[in-house]
Specification:
Distance between the termini of chain A: 29 Å
Structural class of chain A: mainly alpha
Strand content of chain B: 5-15%
Oligomer: heterodimer
Shape of chain A: globular
CATH architecture of the largest domain in chain B: Orthogonal Bundle
Number of helices of chain B: 5
Radius of gyration of chain B: 16 Å
CATH class of the largest domain in chain B: Mainly Alpha
Shape of chain B: globular
Distance between the termini of chain B: 15 Å
Number of domains of chain A: 2
Number of domains of chain B: 2
Largest sheet of chain A: 2 strands, antiparallel
Structural class of chain B: mainly alpha
Helix content of chain B: 55-70%
Helix content of chain A: 55-70%
Number of helices of chain A: 10
CATH topology of the largest domain in chain B: Arc Repressor Mutant, subunit A
Radius of gyration of chain A: 23 Å
CATH superfamily of the largest domain in chain B: Winged helix-like DNA-binding domain superfamily/Winged helix DNA-binding domain
């Protein structure tokens, strides 16, 4: 069971990492801005293919090695989990190191070939963007949070009937295997964590309004439609995950109060279903939307390019991965190498957004 | 409506912003009462400092072309903009004078300058550069 689960995740990571360049905008290769007109540069294309081949080959070798070790060596459960997690990190780490080598090569190519010289860097803004932007309304995200608060109140009402030991961890078979003593805090730890996570996803959806929109001057309409789509789908994804975790953790919590609804089948099937569904939805998101909606196609007559390119922002992207621009008030920004979002680390609010939920969750776990 | 800001231009960014918004008003793409992005959203889209956007908005507010309403945001002047007063006329003339002079020094004829103005008006109305 564990082997199948981790094997699936490992394979998923490998394939996603290996084919990453295929999901990305053609104007960004390995975290480097490629102006229109050079997106088909043979060297860059070659490096992309090289990256895919390397990461895929390496990942498959690790995957086969992992399966072989796990199936023939009969490791204990703890060793197995440790092993499973470390192979995932190895694959990720190696792909990131290889990415970085490619990043440096593309950067050098861009400099030596002078791709920016003689071009006029233009920033395009749609002043009506906020009116066109359709997100899931905030209230939809607040409803599950109210449910969680209700759950906390309900827990206190049922405090006397609760068992003396509160389960805090469930093993792979769905049986609780770690407990904390009953206190007014430990009985609500789980809904509190849920509340923090719900808050994070609310922020993720709302953050779509506070994230700069970068439009491509050579195909404004297409990039506008893509930007609207990527934000809408991010908001939808956040809602999907919020509902998922609310149902899952809500059930976990309720069955502590009412052991009669507990079922070990549900206890292991629920997280598994949630995991598989999430991976599926994220997979669909990556394939359908792609980075910045680059896989969404719009009919547009591209007029001949008059030497205009988007503003080169490479200087703000450390290693092509970390965005640091103290002028830009954006909090969330789209990843350059990857589908999804990262933070503007030069904005203090980003650090608050990143650290506060982490500290809260760790704090709750630590206090148990 | 799209606006385009040139990153390496001699014209300051805030003026480029203000000019583009005014051109949008001339073309009717920005109608009276239309809302403009918040300072934060605009600056995020530009990847530029909020002061730059603020400066542009204040420049336009001084001319009474937009209204900055606390809380509800920035809107294109909801009341119709009246024809230039004598004072405003004189101000524009004063700004044009050195440019016309420069053209005359560079041996442009009056006719050529008039053609130039006509061409510019047409480009602004059609949104060409």
């Amino acid at each position: 069971m564990i082997i199948a689960l981790f094997g699936f995740i490992l394979l998923f990571i490998t394939v996603l990492q290996a084919f990453m360049p295929k999901f990305l905008k053609p104007t960004e290769a390995f975290g480097v801005y490629i102006p229109d007109g050079y997106v088909k540069d043979p060297v860059v294309m070659k490096l992309k293919n090289k990256y895919t081949t390397f990461v895929l080959t390496f990942g498959i070798i690790i995957f086969v090695g992992y399966l072989w070790l796990a199936l023939t060596q009969n490791p204990t459960e703890e060793t197995l989990i440790l092993m499973s997690v470390s192979v995932q990190f190895t694959t990720l780490f190696v792909s990131i190191v290889y990415y970085f080598m490619m990043h440096l090569r593309v950067k050098k190519r861009k400099e030596t070939q002078k791709w920016l010289s003689g071009k006029s860097e233009v920033r395009v803004v749609d002043v009506k963007f906020q009116d066109k932007l359709k997100l899931i309304p905030r209230v939809i995200f607040i409803i599950p949070m109210i449910v969680t608060v209700g759950l906390i109140i309900y827990t206190f009402m049922k405090y006397d009937q609760m068992p003396e030991m509160i389960p805090t961890h469930w093993g792979p078979t769905g049986e609780a295997d770690a407990f904390s003593e009953k206190t007014y805090f430990s009985v609500i730890a789980l809904p509190l964590i849920l509340l923090v996570m719900q808050g994070m996803f609310l922020f993720m959806s709302e953050g779509m309004k506070f994230s700069g929109v970068r439009l491509n001057p050579t195909n404004k309409k297409t990039s506008l439609a893509q930007q609207l789509a990527v934000r809408k789908y991010t908001s939808l994804l956040a809602l999907f995950i919020t509902i998922g975790i609310t149902l899952m953790l809500g059930y976990f919590h309720l069955q502590t109060i009412h052991p009669e609804i507990s079922s070990s089948i549900i206890m292991w099937a629920l997280p598994l279903t949630f995991l598989i569904l999430t991976f599926t939805v994220v997979g669909i998101y990556a394939i359908k939307v792609g980075q910045s909606g680059s896989r969404i196609k719009v009919e547009e007559n591209n007029l001949p390019i008059d030497n205009k390119i988007a503003v080169d922002e490479d200087e703000y992207w450390t290693g092509g991965m970390f965005y640091m621009n103290k002028n830009d008030p954006s909090i969330m920004v789209e990843k350059r190498f990857g589908v999804g979002w990262t933070l503007n680390f030069a904005n203090p609010i980003s650090w608050i957004v990143l650290l506060v939920p982490l500290l809260l969750i760790f704090g709750i776990v630590f206090l148990l | 409506m799209f606006i385009e800001i040139k990153a390496n231009s001699d014209v300051p960014i805030y003026l480029q912003l203000a000019h583009q918004i005014m051109e949008g008003m001339v073309r009717g793409e920005l109608k009276s009462g239309d809302s403009l992005p918040s300072v934060r959203a605009f600056a995020s889209d530009l990847g530029m400092n909020m002061h730059t956007v603020n400066k542009a908005y204040h420049y336009l507010e001084e001319k009474d072309f937009i209204q900055i309403v606390a809380k509800s945001g920035v809107v294109i002047q909801p009341n119709s903009i009246p024809k230039a007063t004598m004072e405003e006329r004189r101000k524009i003339e004063a700004q044009l004078r050195p440019l016309i002079t420069e053209g005359l020094v560079l041996k442009l004829s009056e006719e050529e300058l008039v053609v130039m103005v006509r061409k510019l008006v047409q480009n602004i109305e059609e949104g060409k550069e």
